[in-house]
Amino acid sequence: MSAASNHGATPYYFVPAPSRHPATAALGLFFVILGAGQWVNGHTWGAYSLLAGLVIWLGTLFFWFKEAIGESEGGQYSQRIDISFRWSMSWFIFSEVMFFAAFFGALFWARIYSVPSLGSLENQLLWPDFKAVWPSVAAGATASPAGTVAPFNTMGPWPIPTLNTAILLTSGATLTIAHHALIAAQRSKAVFWMWITVLLGITFLGFQAYEYIHAYHELGLKLTSGIYGSTFFMLTGFHGFHVFVGMLMLLFITLRLAKGHFTPTRHFGFEGAAWYWHFVDVVWLGLYIVVYWL
């Protein structure tokens, strides 16, 4: 996915041979979802399933990307393949937009409709002690009159979420600098700024891991902490996973840049990863405002 060659060996439209990679990637993701679901529900074997799934999935991606890179550098990808990749990445990012829209919609519905409805006069006989206040910060006071949700504290915007916002915005700027350096045929400069971008992504993930540990042990905020806890961890957790995937993309692009791949005019592999990273930045801005401030 670096350049479309124009020499005579380039096929009109490259069709890859049958591959096992889609099946093994799906198998790895199956064990990831199965393990994660069981782990959060108290089954210790879920952690091993999650780890095994990640190993299978990441191993598949490594060999799959290696084959695609070999095909690209071998001159198999024409301009038509380049256009196909661009449309594919565009639709993929659109699907990710809809993915996060579903979770933002769940949060919106819970805050604007569900909680006020449960606190209305019509439900007073059913749940007389309920108080329609967001977020539900104490058992028996709001969302858990029966005491089924342990007391917890909410997560504010200071300091880690704000620091992470600055980190992601900075990473978007460094990625843009690297892109312009590549277009200007300044490969060493592009590699330098790409490494900075990758390090910023790793720093973001480190801060988020610390935030989760702080939330769990000091704030009592868990995935089981009512609708607030479930929406908080679903939104921020899935975003963190997308940051992890985006960071891996940028890491491989950086290594390819250092090996001499991509040209100033042909570098969609770089551009596709950049599109994805900027999408992650925009989603985080929405999370930062809606989850941490409102």
Task: Describe this structure as you would to a colleague.
- With 294 residues, the chain is mostly helical.
- The chain has two domains: 1-77, Helix Hairpins (Orthogonal Bundle); 84-293, Four Helix Bundle (Hemerythrin (Met), subunit A).
- It is 69% helix and 0% strand.
- The chain has seven helices and no strands.
- The chain has helices spanning 21-40, 45-73, 79-118, 160-183, 187-217, 226-258, 268-293.
- Residues 1-8 have low confidence and may be disordered.
Keywords:
69% helix, disordered N terminus, Helix Hairpins, 2 domains, 294 residues, mainly alpha, Four Helix Bundle (Hemerythrin (Met), subunit A)
What CATH architecture of the largest domain do you see? Answer: Up-down Bundle
CATH homologous superfamily designation of the largest domain: Cytochrome c oxidase, subunit III, four-helix bundle
From the alpha-carbon coordinates, what is the Rg to the nearest angstrom? 23 Å
Structural domain tally: 2
| Low-confidence residue ranges | 1-8
Helix content: 55-70%
C-alpha end-to-end distance: 41 Å
**What is the CATH C-level name of the largest domain?**
Mainly Alpha
Q: What structural class do the secondary elements suggest? A: mainly alpha
- Count of extended strands: 0
Order of helices and strands: HHHHHHH
Task: Please summarize the sheet with the most strands.
Answer: none
| General shape | elongated
What's the average pLDDT? 89
Report the portion of residues in β strands: under 5%
